[in-house]
């Protein structure tokens, strides 16, 4: 998804619950998608990626789902922990010849104790 | 293995000045890309360098430029600084260029223009 302005969606969940963060991407030609986590004062940290020939990929406590029909990406975090509090960004790359990521606006995830 | 290193971490400059930021990629990585992050525009692609060649450029004015050295280290330069250039500048390193290549970010350089 293209960054579209100031509004940063927020999501609050209880510690231990599962969370789902959604992202709508803009380019139907995008072939590669990444989720990043950014904590305050730090650079984005790679979480998980998925290629367009897949619709699901699992990591440790995280799952990414890709629905190309509606251009939608989601990140599921299982059993959230306080350390999961951060801003989460989806990013897409449609340029086969370059490393050029287009980022979504981000979602701020807050874990409540 | 050391991560992506950006220097300096913080910088304060005056309008009209120029600034040079540095990025050392992960050892063995040949692609370095630069991004600007602001509260209003989010993360936006500036340009990418691979094997000392600029592969792609984002929608930024010519005041923003960069280069890459033979050891893959990269610098970006902003000339004639404007207040709106205040941002967090991030660099990302990848093993190769193109699709399906994980990009790892540094901590960023926080530039403030006064």
Question: Could you characterize what this model shows?
Answer:
- The complex is a heterodimer of chains A (113) and B (114).
- In chain A, a hairpin with a 6-residue loop joins strand 3 and strand 4 (45-51).
- With 113 residues, chain A is an all-beta fold.
- Chain A has strands at 10-14, 19-24, 32-38, 45-51, 56-58, 62-67, 72-77, 86-93, 102-103, 107-112.
- The model of chain A is unreliable at 1-6 (pLDDT under 50).
- With 114 residues, chain B is an all-beta fold.
- Chain B is 0% helix and 53% strand.
- Chain B has strands spanning 5-7, 10-13, 19-24, 31-38, 42-50, 53-57, 64-68, 74-78, 87-94, 104-105, 109-113.
- In chain B, a hairpin with a 5-residue loop joins strand 7 and strand 8.
- The radius of gyration of chain B is 13 Å and the shape is globular.
- In chain B, 38% of the residues are buried.
- The interface between A and B is medium-sized, with 30 and 32 residues.
Offer a few descriptive terms.
heterodimer; A: 113 residues; 6-stranded mixed β-sheet; 0% helix; globular; B: 114 residues; mainly beta; 7-stranded mixed β-sheet; 4-stranded antiparallel β-sheet; 53% strand
How many DSSP H or I helices of chain A? 0
Largest interface: A-B, 30 and 32 residues
* Beta-strand share of residues of chain B: over 45%
What do the pLDDT scores of chain A average to?
A: 89
General form of chain A? globular
Backbone CA Rg of chain B: 13 Å
Distance between the termini of chain A: 31 Å
Radius of gyration over C-alpha positions of chain A, nearest whole angstrom: 14 Å
Q: How many individual β-strands of chain A?
A: 10
Poorly predicted runs of chain A are 1-6
* Percent in strands of chain A: over 45%
Give the CA-CA distance, first to last residue of chain B: 37 Å
């Amino acid at each position: 998804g293209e960054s579209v302005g100031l509004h940063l969606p927020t999501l609050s969940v209880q510690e231990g619950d599962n969370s789902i963060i959604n992202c709508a991407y803009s380019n139907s030609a995008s072939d590669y998608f990444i989720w990043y986590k950014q904590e305050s004062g730090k650079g984005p940290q790679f979480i998980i990626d998925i290629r367009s020939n897949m619709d699901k990929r699992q990591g440790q406590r995280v799952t990414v789902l890709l629905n190309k029909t509606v251009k939608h990406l989601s990140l599921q975090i299982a059993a959230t922990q306080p350390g999961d509090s951060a801003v989460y960004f989806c990013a897409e790359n449609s340029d086969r010849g370059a490393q050029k990521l287009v980022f979504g606006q981000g979602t701020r995830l807050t874990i409540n104790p | 293995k050391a991560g992506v290193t950006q220097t300096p971490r913080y910088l304060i400059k005056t309008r009209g000045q120029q600034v040079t930021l540095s990025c050392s990629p992960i050892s063995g990585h040949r692609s370095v890309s630069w991004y600007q992050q602001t509260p209003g525009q989010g993360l936006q692609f500036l340009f990418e360098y691979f094997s000392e060649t600029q592969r792609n450029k984002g929608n930024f004015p010519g005041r923003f430029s960069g280069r890459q050295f033979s050891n893959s280290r990269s610098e970006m330069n902003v000339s004639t600084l404007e207040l709106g250039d205040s941002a967090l500048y991030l660099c990302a390193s990848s093993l190769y260029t193109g699709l399906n290549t994980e990009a790892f970010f540094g901590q960023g350089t926080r530039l403030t223009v006064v």
